[in-house]
Amino acid sequence: MNIGLDIGGTKCAISTGEPYDGGIEILSRDEFPTAGLSWREVLEEFSRRIEAIASSRSMSPKDFVSIGISCGGPLDSKKGLILSPPNLPGWDNVPIVEFFEDRFGVPTSVENDANACAMAEYLYGSGRGVKNLVFMTFGTGLGAGIVIDGKLYSGANDNAGEIGHIRLAPTGPVGYNKEGSAEGFCSGAGIARLAKIRKGLDITAKELFERVRLGDADAVEVFRESAEKLATILAFTIDILNPEVIALGGIFMRNADLFMPIIEPILEEEALVLARKVCKITAAELGENIGDYAALAVAIGSQNK
Fold first, then answer.
1. Angle (CA) 75 77 79, round 5°
2. Kind of pairing, strands 133-136 and 245-248?
3. Measured between alpha carbons, how far is 140 from 12 in angstroms, rounded to an integer?
4. What is the pLDDT of residue 305?
5. pLDDT score for 177
6. CA-to-CA distance for 227 and 207, rounded, in angstroms?
7. How far apart are CA 133 and CA 285, in angstroms?
8. DSSP, res 165
9. Cβ atoms of residues 296 and 66 within 8 Å
10. Rounded to the nearest 10 degrees, what angle do helices 113-124 and 290-302 cross at?
11. How far apart are the first and last CA of the chain?
């Protein structure tokens, strides 16, 4: 049995699973909020839950095959360090792999959440049957995982795909510590800031989309700006990487019917015709459980290295 730990800026989840031919069976799942907890408190909470899972199955934590961790970057997957992610304040040079290997004696691996989700979606979701895929998180933050010719591309030091850091406008909401960044316009926290800046709305992204569906004019205007910026990022991605699939999670996944009518015309105008022709834009097929699949894919994938 494998353990998957999914660490997000809003919540953390722990899952157990077993691989089978062409998929992963998720056996259990639990979650807890990240807000207000230090990195050490989060790791201790994970530890308590790992011990409880083992106890409930009359086994020792050392009997787990592997532990896989999916977490927002930047991080160093080779050294097993989390390196100050913007959505996890205080998580500076956290030796997360060492922590769990010392605690439980179980092989442990960590991977950028976008990369982990990209591999999960490539292996078990919308990427089946293709060689080139990009996954975009579009949740608390905005990042991308890139699969080229069937292999994860992480760059020279695990920083490939950090599209949230790209500046799309000289001013605008702050995301990834940069004003007017892609993450500022296309993330949950960013959309909430955008609503506050543009219309003085003190609401969450979820509440904004509820208003959009009710036809609220201010909410629609804020949403349209976010969608147009997303279309710009998608056009960049299509032109530079020429993927067969771009799968998006989070906010896009829940609101694809609202995004696509705005995105499509912009892509037709901005993206290279031949590259756009072969690229499918889709919501992540693994749905709301993609974070669980991703963390478990890290655990299972580490056994094949």
1. 95
2. parallel
3. 12
4. 53
5. 86
6. 16
7. 13
8. G
9. no
10. 90
11. 18
Q: Please state, in angstroms and rounded to a whole number, the distance separating the CA atoms of residues 103 and 11.
A: 22
Exposure string over 261-279, b if 16+ CB within 10 A, otherwise e: ebbeebbeeebeeebbeeb
Residue 124 confidence (pLDDT)? 92
Average pLDDT, the chain: 94
Contacts of 11 (CB under 8 A, 6+ apart): 31, 32, 33, 34
pLDDT of residue 304: 58
State the pairing for strand pair 174-175/178-179: antiparallel
pLDDT of residue 303: 60
**Is the pTM for the entire model greater than 0.85?**
yes
φ, ψ of residue 28 in degrees (nearest 5)? -155, 160
Residues of the chain with pLDDT under 70: 302-305
Helix, strand and coil content of the chain, in percent to the nearest 5, comes to: 45, 25, 35
Report the chain's C-alpha Rg in angstroms. Answer: 19
Q: Identify any residues that bridge with 280 across adjacent strands, giving them in sequence order.
A: 245
Alpha-carbon distance values, 58 to 3, 39, 54 (Å): 16, 29, 6
Exposure class string for 159-181: b at 16+ Cβ within 10 A, else e: ebbbbbbbebeeebbbbbebebb
Residue-wise DSSP of 70-95: EE-SSEETTTTEE---TTSTT--SB-
Tokens of 264: 């499509």
Residues in the chain: 305
What is the model's pLDDT at position 94?
97
> Which DSSP helix (H) or strand (E) runs through 27?
strand 23-33
If we measure between CA atoms, which residue out of 4, 14, 3 comes closest to residue 62? 3
Q: Which residues of 138-149 are buried (b: 16+ CB within 10 A; e: fewer)?
A: bbbbbbbbbbee
